[in-house]
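User: Just a sanity check before I run the rest of the batch. Below are the structure tokens for the first item. I only need the designed sequence back.
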């Protein structure tokens, strides 16, 4: 209580400052720099800050350090004494902890050993149940007694064996069906191959028949073209012969015309005998009459 009273006395030195603080707030409201040219306002603000505020803040800081020093020294002494006592207590406390640890370590060992045994039992149960694909509650499995677990294991084993027997029977049936299906597919594959081979053979024979007919048609077409070419050549040859005969006839006609001076007589003969053949026939008739 004495310390508290001394502290209140020390803090009372700040009361006059706080009492005059409202006056400072009133005075500072009258200070204002109106612009760059307001040197008087600037100087007034600066003087108020340096002469009053700075001095007041410095005085408060000095008094704070002075008042606080006593309490800082007292606090350090208190901390030092408390540390000495605490160190002695820690020695006694550590001894008690070491004695307690004898029981705690043994209890921890027994607990760990018990938990390890329970875990080994639980792991063994899980392995056995998983091997027969059993559905079980993991959380309640460790709570079962040995008798309860053996009953559960037997029930699940019977179920598993029954399901396995049914599964194996179904597998055999499916395997038999798959074998029949494979044989059927193999037979169908052979039949398809035979049918494809027969179809290919038919296509080959049809192709050969078509090629044979095409070859015959090409041969006939070749013969026709050769015959046409031969006829055309013969016709050309005949036309050439006839043309040659015409030329020769014209030549003889020209020669006869040259030998017959009387053109009127020549035209009369020419009108009577339009071709050289007709003239030859007439000459032959006359020659025959002369001989008679």
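Assistant: Here's the designed sequence for the first item:
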């Amino acid at each position: 209580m004495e310390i508290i009273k001394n502290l209140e006395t020390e803090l009372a030195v700040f009361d006059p400052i706080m009492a005059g603080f409202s006056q400072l707030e009133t005075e500072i409201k009258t200070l204002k720099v109106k612009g760059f040219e307001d040197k008087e306002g600037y100087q007034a603000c600066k003087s108020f800050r340096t002469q009053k505020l700075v001095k007041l803040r410095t005085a408060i800081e000095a008094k704070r350090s002075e008042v606080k020093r006593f309490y800082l020294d007292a606090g350090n002494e208190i901390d030092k004494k408390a540390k000495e006592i605490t160190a002695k207590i820690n020695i006694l406390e550590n001894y008690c902890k070491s004695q307690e640890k004898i029981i705690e370590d043994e209890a921890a060992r027994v607990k760990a050993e018990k938990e390890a045994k329970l875990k080994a039992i639980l792991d063994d149960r899980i392995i056995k149940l998983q091997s027969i694909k059993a559905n079980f509650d993991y959380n309640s499995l460790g709570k079962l007694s040995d008798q309860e677990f053996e009953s559960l294991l037997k029930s699940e084993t019977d179920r598993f064996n029954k399901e396995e027997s049914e599964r194996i029977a179904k597998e055999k049936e499916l395997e038999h069906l798959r074998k029949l299906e494979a044989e059927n597919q193999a037979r169908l594959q052979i039949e398809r191959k035979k049918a494809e081979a027969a179809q290919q053979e038919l296509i080959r024979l049809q192709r050969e028949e078509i090629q044979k007919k095409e070859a015959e048609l090409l041969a006939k077409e070749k013969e026709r073209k050769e015959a046409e070419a031969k006829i055309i050549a013969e016709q050309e040859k005949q036309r050439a012969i006839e043309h040659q005969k015409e030329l020769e006839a014209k030549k003889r006609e020209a020669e006869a015309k040259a030998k017959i001076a009387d053109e009127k007589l020549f035209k009369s003969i020419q009108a009577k005998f339009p071709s050289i053949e007709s003239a030859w026939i007439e000459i032959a008739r006359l020659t025959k009459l002369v001989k008679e």
